[in-house]
Amino acid sequence: MSNSDQVSQVIVVGAGIGGLTLAIALARQGYQVRIFEQADALSEVGAGLQLSPNAVKVLRTLGLEHVLKDYVYQPENAAIRHYQSGRYFLKSELGLQAEQRYGAPYWHIHRADLHGVLVQACYSAGVEIELGHKVLGYRSDKKKATVLLENKTEYCDLVVGADGIHSKVRELMLGIQAPIFTGQVAWRGVIRADQIKGVELKPDATVWAGPNQHMVTYYLRGGEFVNFVAVEERAEWSNESWRQEGKVSELQSKFAGWHPEVTRMLDACDATFMWALNGRPTLPKWSDQRVVLLGDACHPMLPFMAQGAAMAIEDAYVLSQLLSKHDYPTAFTQYETIRKPRTSAIQKLSRENAGLYHMHGGMLGQAKLEALGVVSKFAGGLIKGKLDSVYGYDVTSLSM
Ligand SMILES: Cc1cc2nc3c(=O)[nH]c(=O)nc-3n(C[C@H](O)[C@H](O)[C@H](O)COP(=O)(O)OP(=O)(O)OC[C@H]3O[C@@H](n4cnc5c(N)ncnc54)[C@H](O)[C@@H]3O)c2cc1C
Predict the structure, then answer these.
(1) Residue 218 known to be catalytic
(2) pLDDT value for 363
């Protein structure tokens, strides 16, 4: 059953990865879609993103795989290595074999490249993107929804809050959900690969596991850049912004004595940004009458499974499909029923990985990593089984 008679105008709050993906899918179904984005320009932070096969399957269904291919780097393995010796605790294939196993490739991509492709697809589909418009409030009743901006009010049939981890729409719907500091602070940076002297980084997505801190390194844009995310434990921190500059010398000193692939890479680093990793409680509901949440706004997650953007992309696909088949109250209910168990399971896996990468428990922590290596060598199916549920999932084949 088509629902386009009753619902034709949708306002999406936030031109992030989830909001743009949803807008493309809805506009192609005939909805009139407008996005209000608080930023004055369409740009993304300089950082990389791991796009696992479950996300690529959605992007393929939206016809974007061939465009994105020009920007990506396909890693050979997912690896967990000892922070000093570089010894492998785990090495799991991510190239062709993984592509065959999961039905789509595993990619690394610069966020700006993904963002750019999604924005172009939005324009081609007729989506209007209004920049410099911060959404301050909404109202919703049986007949319509209203979005309040700084200097105007806009009306529509549905509002989607895809406004990220600090979501205003979520706050208005459910009250302030105070962030819970996880005791971890992350640093990120992107470095030109040709500036890294004396070592060549392996063509893998590598987690360097060390006591109370870890580092993730991987190539971007066909190998032109290396992206890193470093995570350390700290007693307190308050800022959740992605754009707070960190001191390169401080970062370098924290990782002094680590494997040369890490230290030489950091020698070539000239800028780094840092932010606190916070959790938030599970939300009691994701929608309120004509307003619904999507992506980080309803299920922010720690980056240790590299699945936040992937979940926003999956959300967008499910919500768009449900809206094309059902009236919006049914679509919103089914959306939460389908998505909440999946996103909660991945939030949990992400939390568990933090302890593993930081060798919590001293020798015991290291023993756990060693055991992971043994398991992957002699019972690789166990590790693959865990990843199968994440990467093998195909949201485009669900019957909705
Ligand atoms: C270190 C790190 C590494 C990560 N690595 C990966 C990875 O490898 N793979 C992966 O899948 N995920 C990764 N993630 C997670 C991923 O980046 C996020 O989950 C994803 O960007 C969420 O998308 P979103 O559309 O929900 O929100 P966002 O992309 O945050 O977009 C929200 C948008 O809403 C706008 N906005 C906010 N408030 C308002 C308002 N009031 N009015 C108007 N506009 C507003 C913002 O400006 C922004 O443009 C990582 C995250 C971190 C922190």
Answers:
(1) yes
(2) 64
The confidence score (pLDDT) of residue 2 equals 43
- Which two three-digit tokens encode residue 352? 């568990």
Ligand 1 residue neighbourhood (C-beta within 6 Å):
13-19, 36-39, 49-50, 134-135, 162-164, 168, 186, 188, 229, 295-297, 303, 306-310, 312
Whole-number Å distance, alpha carbon 349 to ligand 1 midpoint, is 19
Residue 377 pLDDT level (bands cut at 50, 70, 90) = low
Atom 51 of ligand 1, residue of closest alpha carbon: 303
- pTM, rounded to two decimals: 0.93
**Nearest-5° angle of CA 234, CA 236, CA 241?**
95
Q: How far is the CA of 112 from the centre of ligand 1 (A)?
A: 12
Query: Greatest CA separation found in the chain?
Result: 65
Give distance in angstroms: CA of 219 to centre of ligand 1.
21
Residue 358 confidence (pLDDT): 72
Q: For residue 120, how many other CB atoms are within 10 A of its CB?
A: 14
pLDDT, tens only, 42-59: 876 778 999 999 999 999
CATH class label, 9-73+108-178+281-355: alpha beta
What's the distance, Cα to Cα, between the start and end of the chain in Å? 12
Residue, of 259 and 275, whose pLDDT is higher:
259
Residues listed for the chain: 400
Residue in the structure block whose two tokens are 């939460």: 336
CA 17 to centroid of ligand 1, rounded, Å: 7
CA distances from 284 to 138, 298, 302, 336, 349 (A): 19, 10, 20, 10, 21
In this prediction, residue 3 has a pLDDT band, given cuts at 50, 70 and 90, of very low
Q: Using CA positions, which residue lies closest to atom 41 of ligand 1?
A: 135
pLDDT > 90 in the chain, percent:
72
CB atoms within 10 A of CB 98: 24
User: Per the residue annotation, which of 138, 218, 219, 357 is the catalytic one?
Assistant: 218
What is the CA 324 to chain-centroid distance, rounded?
25
- The proportion of the chain whose per-residue pLDDT surpasses 70, expressed as a percent, equals 90
The residue contributing the CA closest to ligand 1 atom 3 is: 303
